[in-house]
From TrEMBL:
Belongs to the purine nucleoside phosphorylase YfiH/LACC1 family. GO terms for molecular function: copper ion binding; hydrolase activity; S-methyl-5-thioadenosine phosphorylase activity. Purine nucleoside enzyme that catalyzes the phosphorolysis of adenosine and inosine nucleosides, yielding D-ribose 1-phosphate and the respective free bases, adenine and hypoxanthine. Also catalyzes the phosphorolysis of S-methyl-5'-thioadenosine into adenine and S-methyl-5-thio-alpha-D-ribose 1-phosphate. Also has adenosine deaminase activity. Keywords: Copper, Hydrolase, Metal-binding, Transferase, Zinc. It comes from the Bacteria. It comes from Nocardioides albertanoniae. The keyword Transferase applies. It catalyses: adenosine + H2O + H(+) = inosine + NH4(+); inosine + phosphate = alpha-D-ribose 1-phosphate + hypoxanthine; S-methyl-5'-thioadenosine + phosphate = 5-(methylsulfanyl)-alpha-D-ribose 1-phosphate + adenine; adenosine + phosphate = alpha-D-ribose 1-phosphate + adenine. This is Purine nucleoside phosphorylase. SUPFAM superfamilies: CNF1/YfiH-like putative cysteine hydrolases.
Length: 236
């Protein structure tokens, strides 16, 4: 069920893998996608199983992700168009979804603020992670830790040379080369550079989604399959 799971004080966080759900092939098993042709009943059961294991009885807030830089305050039961989400509410799980993009979870336990961001190529270049950090600081966060989960690595994320140059002009750290020698992007490296400029300690627990069969990958598997990144601040 989890690629990585940890607790840091009252902060619980996790990045999922593809196992432990009920979706049939080719979505097998723990598909958390919003869109796609997987059975809606299966996706609903996958969410129920995950939330019951991660934070039994806790509500969750998520997003309709659009590869931008908008950050919103969490609202349970709503699904706004955004790619960053923050809250000061205790025992509310924040959930973002990825399938090659970079999931980032953030927390300041002492200030009581947590956040999550979905950073693809466009979102990273637009600054969704710095925007999420800024929103958390506006809510009182002063000592933020970030965790970066699985994404498609620079060895595998081939892009046209013009696209590479466009993104690298904004974030030079993202420029990379595939293992077969063609232009690529390392979105995670770009995110880590942004976090460093914001003086954020980052814990990199990423693996390449395309290279890891236990993870979903848009480039390898196609659309309609998503991993989850979850974080909450417990009341006690």
């Amino acid at each position: 069920m989890y690629s990585f799971r940890a607790s840091a004080g009252l902060v619980d966080l996790a990045f999922t893998d593809r196992y432990g759900g009920v979706s049939a092939a080719p979505y097998a098993e723990l598909n958390l996608a919003v869109a796609g042709s997987d059975e809606e009943t299966a996706k609903a059961e996958n969410h129920r199983l995950l939330l019951a294991d991660f934070a039994d009885g806790a509500p969750y807030a998520d997003l309709y992700q659009v590869h931008g830089d908008v950050v919103v305050d969490a609202r349970c039961g709503a699904r706004p168009e955004a790619d960053g989400i923050v809250t000061t509410e205790r025992d509310l799980v924040l959930l973002v979804r990825t399938a090659d993009c970079v999931p980032v979870l953030l927390a300041d336990e002492a200030a009581g603020v947590v956040g999550a961001a979905h950073a693809g190529r466009r979102g990273m270049a637009a600054g969704v992670v710095p925007q999420t950090v800024a929103r958390m600081r506006a809510l009182g966060a002063t000592s933020i830790t970030a965790w970066m989960g699985p994404y498609v690595c620079g060895r595998c994320y081939e892009v046209p040379e013009a696209m590479q140059a466009e993104v690298a002009d904004v974030e030079p750290a993202a420029k990379a080369t595939t293992s077969w020698g063609t232009p690529s992007l390392d979105v995670g490296a770009g995110v880590l550079a942004q976090l460093a400029r914001d003086d954020i300690d980052a814990v990199d627990v990423s693996r390449c989604t395309r290279e890891s069969d236990d993870l979903y990958s848009f480039r390898r598997d196609g659309a309609g399959m998503s991993l989850g990144a979850l974080i909450r601040l417990r009341a006690a």
